[in-house]
Write a structure and sequence with these properties.
With 424 residues, the chain is an alpha/beta fold. The chain folds into 2 domains: 4-46 and 53-66 and 315-421, Aspartate Aminotransferase, domain 1; 68-313, Type I PLP-dependent aspartate aminotransferase-like (Major domain) (Aspartate Aminotransferase, domain 2), CATH 3.40.640. It has helices at residues 4-16, 68-80, 89-101, 114-129, 154-158, 169-172, 183-192, 218-228, 248-253, 279-282, 301-313, 316-339, 365-369, 373-385, 406-421; strands at 35-39, 42-45, 50-53, 107-111, 133-137, 175-178, 197-202, 232-236, 259-262, 273-277, 345-349, 352-356, 388-389, 398-399. The strands form 3 sheets. A 7-stranded mixed β-sheet has the order 4-10-9-8-7-5-6, with helices on both faces. Strands 1-2-3-13 form a 4-stranded mixed β-sheet. The chain has a 3-stranded antiparallel β-sheet with strand order 11-12-14, covered by helices on one side. The longest helix has 24 residues, at 316-339. The structure holds pyridoxal-5'-phosphate and ligand LHPZP3FS. Pyridoxal-5'-phosphate (PLP) binds next to helix 4. One of its GO terms (biological process) is protoporphyrinogen IX biosynthetic process. Pathway: Porphyrin-containing compound metabolism; protoporphyrin-IX biosynthesis; 5-aminolevulinate from L-glutamyl-tRNA(Glu): step 2/2. GO terms for molecular function: glutamate-1-semialdehyde 2,1-aminomutase activity; pyridoxal phosphate binding; transaminase activity.
Length: 424
């Protein structure tokens, strides 16, 4: 395939930007294509190639790229100013929308990214409980801050640095790691650290080590054991929020955490994050309480505007259609991998799906890591050559949007067939 201009831009970019990119997941060998524009479910690169996009900027673009209502609302907002350092009515509108949808949300603090949201939620939990330790799952990714970059998923795992150097062991010695979907491991950790654990943070569906679903009853178990032990339960819904259902994974699974973190979809393609939760906990945050949280761009009017326009469009049809599309593609992957006799496991839920080149059921990070990552990258390139872009890692997740219609799905299924023809 023709990627000459991308290659030249990558060579140029490397002189000024670390490995030519601004987030590690965007780099893949030998070099990534450079994007010129995006519309609906398509990405267009500088070399004139058009791709059906299942990366969707790692999740936010569920309405497709350049959604007209969002663009129009944002244009209007741009004329009115882009940052005030003062409160606005739109923040109330979006907060109310979030509270109406997300079961645990009684109050909201808007921030600028998922990373900031989880960092602040953990600080809040520590401040409220007066305890230091936190529980995190192996392979979970909660952003790029120091408390959680241990046995981390996403780009950290893809690039072979799940434990980042530069983080003092004093910082992470209070981060206790446990395997996902394992009740006994949690019971043991809580017993061994009685009255010392501030919070347990979990991605209800693990979307940064592929797509790992919780076993039936597992999230309910986490709710019960944390409640019994005075541990704050944080659902990191940066991926699952507004995706699994209007109220996210907590609505889908009927398990209500104390706090949740949101991002991605909430900003409609603009930077955002949010911490939401029970009033009595949230009010411990500054300035009503002593636990400090702040940001020049918190509640930025442009992101807030895009968020309001996005949530308006997430109706029942949206959930039905995006789920149906992910299901169709997952079934296609199951059928094709079986027909070509390639060991694989495929998982899907709502608008998320992923194939693992692995013959075992993928229940946790250790099993996910045993997947054939070389074969995954062959599959990735074969798809790309056939006009389909999925995230370039076994340890990311694919997403569907409302713009992936039947015709697009048909084209994707043909590309999958072609990709498997040349996969050993
Ligand atoms: C579950 C989860 N939490 C937190 C983050 C961090 O969000 P951000 O990249 O917006 O900082 C991400 C993604 O990056 C995520 O997938
Ligand atoms: N997997 C990450 C988020 O979900 C990818 C985003 C990034 O790190 O750039």
């Amino acid at each position: 395939m023709k990627l000459e201009k991308s290659k030249a831009l990558f060579e140029e970019a490397q002189k000024y930007l670390v490995k030519g990119v601004n987030s590690p997941v965007r780099y893949f060998k030998p070099y990534p294509f450079f994007v010129q524009k995006a519309k609906d479910c398509y990405l267009f690169d500088v070399d004139g190639n058009k791709y059906i996009d299942y990366c969707l900027a790692y999740g936010p673009m569920v309405l497709g790229h350049a959604n007209e209502a969002i663009i129009n609302a944002v244009k209007e907002q741009l004329e009115l100013g882009t940052a005030y350092g003062c409160p606005t009515e739109k923040e109330i509108i979006l907060a109310k929308e979030v509270i109406n949808r997300v079961p645990c949300a009684e109050m909201v603090r808007f921030v600028n990214s998922g990373t900031e949201a989880t960092m602040s939620a953990i600080r809040l939990a520590r401040g409220v409980t007066g305890r230091k330790k936190i529980i995190k799952f192996d392979g979970a990714y909660h952003g790029a801050h120091d408390y959680v970059l241990v046995k981390s998923g996403s780009g950290a795992l893809t690039h072979g640095t799940p434990n980042s150097p530069g983080i003092p062991e004093e910082t992470t010695k209070n981060t206790i790691l446990v395997p996902f979907n394992d009740e006994e491991a949690i019971e043991k950790v809580i017993k061994d650290n009685k009255d010392e654990i501030a919070c347990l943070i979990v991605e209800p569906v693990m979307g940064n080590v592929g797509c790992i679903l919780p076993k039936e009853g597992y999230l309910k178990f986490l709710r019960e054991i944390t409640e019994e032990n005075g541990i704050i339960l944080i659902f990191d819904e940066v991926i699952t929020g507004f995706r699994l259902a209007k109220g996210g994974a907590q609505e889908y699974y009927g398990v209500i955490p104390d706090l949740a973190t949101l991002g991605k979809i909430l900003g409609g393609g603009f930077p955002i994050g949010a911490i939401v939760g029970k009033k009595e906990i949230m009010e411990q945050m500054s300035p009503s309480g002593p636990i400090y949280q702040a940001g020049t761009f918190n509640g930025n009017p442009v992101s807030i505007t895009a968020g309001i326009e996005t949530l308006k469009q997430l109706d029942d049809k949206f959930y039905k259609e995006t789920t149906k599309t992910a299901e169709k593609l997952a079934n296609c992957l199951r059928e094709v991998s079986e027909r070509y006799n390639i060991p694989a496991k495929v998982y899907n839920i709502a608008s998320m799906f992923q194939i693992y080149f692995n013959d075992k059921e993928v229940l946790n990070y250790e099993i996910a890591k045993q997947s054939d990552t070389e074969r995954f990258m062959k599959y990735f390139w074969n798809l790309l050559e056939n006009g389909v872009f999925v995230p370039p890692s076994q340890f990311e997740c694919c997403f569907t949007s409302i713009k992936h219609n039947d015709e697009v799905v048909e084209k994707t299924m043909n590309a999958i067939e072609e990709a498997f023809k040349n996969l050993e």
